[in-house]
């Protein structure tokens, strides 16, 4: 019909044909969509050719074929892309531990007791190890509660501490554990756990390099969570010390003689709260 001369085309008939064609194409697409769903339900979890085909398609879709490096140059060779990734990640997980570590002893008044130290260096039994491993699950931190608007002006600043995981000084971790009264034996155990690991860099499913970190903690490692809690405890006590000296005011939770709030920790998030003044903001 499209080849007919201008003015002699039957537009109504052409619209009817187009409508019928589109309906036919829609029915065909729906048919294959339903067939694909049936194949997925029947073959998706099987160790079959269909399973490997899906994995191959997903891998090709997620493959990295080129990147723009720090010199604004596009790189397409896989070995050069792998080297670029390895160099970048090496810079993240590298730190200088030669600097002076802040003395935290004045901030810590509740040191570990002898009984607690004995528990730390006691070799766990097989049953304890088994129960701990099987009890591990995905833990989620609750979101910050809403702060109602009051008459005065307040501010809240959310700081993501996720990068602090990567740059946390190992020397500082050992110093904090010592300040809390942990035995040297336990500190050495922890130091060996966090300083003898290596990271493998993979690109498009294949290894391209290794990284030997010199700082930071591994997210997802059960030990890292407890060490990070000890480290942020020092930050919390620094903020409490500033609150006690009057450098920051925080906010009162009620109009009476209730507690004063200056900060809240949620896993790797820190929320600072205070009065909306320049003096208060600079105090933090």
UniProtKB/TrEMBL annotation:
One Pfam family named in its UniProt record: RVT_1
Domain Reverse transcriptase stretches: 105-274
Domain of life assignment: Eukaryota
PANTHER family: NON-LTR RETROLELEMENT REVERSE TRANSCRIPTASE-LIKE PROTEIN-RELATED, RNA-DIRECTED DNA POLYMERASE
Name of the protein in question: Reverse transcriptase domain-containing protein
Species: Cannabis sativa (Hemp)
Species classification: Eukaryota, Viridiplantae, Streptophyta, Embryophyta, Tracheophyta
């Amino acid at each position: 019909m499209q080849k007919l001369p201008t003015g002699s085309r039957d537009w109504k008939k052409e619209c009817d044909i187009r409508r019928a064609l589109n309906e036919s194409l829609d029915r065909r697409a729906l048919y294959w969509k339903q067939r694909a769903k049936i194949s997925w339900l029947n073959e998706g979890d099987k160790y079959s050719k269909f399973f490997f085909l899906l994995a191959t398609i997903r891998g090709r879709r997620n493959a990295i074929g080129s990147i723009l490096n720090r010199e604004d140059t596009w790189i397409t060779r896989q070995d050069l892309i792998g080297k670029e990734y390895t160099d970048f990640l090496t810079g993240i997980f590298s730190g200088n531990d030669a600097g002076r570590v802040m003395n935290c002893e004045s901030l810590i008044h509740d040191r570990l007791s002898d009984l607690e130290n004995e528990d730390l260096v006691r070799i766990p039994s097989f049953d304890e190890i088994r129960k701990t491993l099987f009890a591990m699950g995905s833990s989620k931190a609750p979101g910050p509660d809403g702060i109602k608007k009051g008459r005065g002006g307040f501010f809240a600043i959310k700081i993501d501490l996720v990068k602090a995981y990567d740059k946390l000084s190992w020397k500082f971790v050992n110093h904090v554990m010592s300040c809390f009264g942990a035995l040297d034996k336990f500190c050495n155990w922890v130091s060996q756990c966090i300083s003898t690991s290596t990271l493998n860099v993979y690109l498009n499913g294949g290894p391209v390099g290794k990284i030997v970190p010199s700082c930071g903690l591994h997210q997802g490692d059960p030990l890292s969570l407890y060490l990070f809690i000890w480290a942020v405890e020092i930050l919390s006590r620094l903020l409490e010390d500033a609150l006690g000296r009057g450098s920051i005011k925080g906010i009162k939770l009620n109009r009476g003689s209730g507690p004063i709030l200056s900060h809240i920790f949620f896993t790797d998030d820190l929320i600072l709260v205070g009065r909306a003044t320049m003096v208060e903001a600079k105090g933090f």
